[in-house]
Each structure stands twice: as C-alpha cells, then as structure tokens.
Amino acid sequence: RGHLERKWEVGFINCAALTEHHGGKTPMSRLLTFAEGSDAVRAQCYLHTGDFAPEGWYEPAERELPLSKPFAWG
C-alpha cells in the first residue's frame, strides 16, 4: 500500500506515518492544495532528508484526488 490510496470511491492519505526516529522511515510532509471551484485536490510529498531521494519535493508521489463537488471557501 502506498501513502495515497483510492478505495470505495474515497481517497485516503497516510499523513501521520511514523518516520525516522520512531519507525526508521524517511521523514516527509504532505501538502494538500485546494483551489476555489476545482473538483480535485493536489497532494504533494516533501522529503526532509536525502536518504531515499534528493531532499525536496518528490514528484513521483504527487497525485490529484477527485472531490465529490467543487471546492469552495466558507
């Protein structure tokens, strides 16, 4: 299983993974970008160390997940 999964027409994002000091994994963060009127959310992965790949935004993990209706602030 990956950090982003889609099952039962629902998107799941593992954004609370145990990393480096607790689980021996690469420390990372997720950035979710919502745009007004968009029916999708952009999910990006940032690697905090260069142990797995160069530190920075990790493009192979970037995904776009559909929303059930267009996003609106408020």
**Beta-strand residue fraction:** 35-45%
Order of helices and strands: EEHEEEE
Helix content: under 10%
Number of domains as seen in the coordinates:
1
Oligomer: single chain
Extract low-pLDDT stretches. Answer: none
Plain-language structure description:
This protein is mainly β and 74 residues long. The chain has one domain. The chain has one helix spanning 20-23; strands at residues 4-7, 10-13, 28-34, 40-47, 56-57, 63-66. Strands 3, 4, 5 and 6 form a 4-stranded antiparallel β-sheet that branches. It starts with a strand and ends in an 8-residue tail after the last strand. The relative contact order is 0.24.
Would you spell out the secondary-structure blueprint of this structure?
Layout: E1 4-7, E2 10-13, H1 20-23, E3 28-34, E4 40-47, E5 56-57, E6 63-66
Antiparallel strand pairs: 1-2, 3-4, 4-5, 4-6
Quick take:
The protein has one helix spanning 20-23; strands at 4-7, 10-13, 28-34, 40-47, 56-57, 63-66. It is mainly beta and 74 residues long.
Question: Which keywords apply here?
Answer:
74 residues; mainly beta; four-stranded antiparallel beta sheet
